[in-house]
Structures are given as C-alpha cells and as structure tokens.
Design a protein that fits this description.
The protein is mostly helical and about 110 residues long. About 90% of the residues lie in helices and about 0% in strands. The chain contains 6 helices and no strands. The protein starts with a helix and ends with a helix. The mean pLDDT is about 85.
Length: about 110
C-alpha cells in the first residue's frame, strides 16, 4: 500500500540525488580546479608573453574578482529566471571562454 509507494519514491529520489551530487562535484572540481591551478602556468605564460610574473598574476586576480562580485547579480537572475537557466548559461559561458582562450595565439 502507501508504505510501499513511499519506499519506491525514496529509491528514485536516492538515485537522482546521487546523480546531482556527482554532477555538482564534477562542475565544482572543473571550475575551481581551473581557477586554482593557475600557479602551474604562471612561469610559462610570463616567459611566452615576455612579461613579468606580476603582470600575468592579474589574470587569476581579475577572475576571482569577477566571480565573487557577480554573486549578487547571479542571485537576482536565479530568482527571476530559475536556477537551471542561470546555471546552464554559466556552464555554457565557461565552456565558450575556456575553448576560446585555447584559440588565442598572441
């Protein structure tokens, strides 16, 4: 009866919940990993572009500033349009930015 239906709902919710946990972990791992791994590229980028490390260090600083200062705007957009739309647009812009930056020659 009703007790069995509740158990079935928990199983479906449990599988979906673990899928969401994995998806959020993967997204967080990718985005945070790309932001905090910049130190590995600091010296090669400064040598390639013939600039000092202080100049190249503005890249992650600017990235952190934009990320942290856009929280209020993103919250307002999420309230207005829903979280799925905002997160999907953020993921698409992240992919476009990452692929686009790999195409830069100089």
């Amino acid at each position: 009866g009703a007790e069995r239906d509740m158990d079935d709902d928990r199983k479906v919710d449990s599988q979906y919940a673990w899928f969401i946990v994995f998806a959020v972990f993967f997204c967080t791992f990718t985005v945070i990993g790309s932001l905090y791994s910049f130190g590995v590229f600091l010296l090669p980028l400064s040598e390639y572009f013939l600039v000092n490390r202080g100049t190249v260090s503005w890249i992650p600083s600017l990235s952190q500033f934009v990320q942290l200062s856009s929280g209020t705007l993103v919250g307002i957009l999420a309230d207005k349009f829903g979280y799925r739309i905002v997160i999907l647009s953020g993921a698409i812009s992240f992919v476009i930015g990452t692929v686009g930056s790999s195409l830069v020659e100089r």
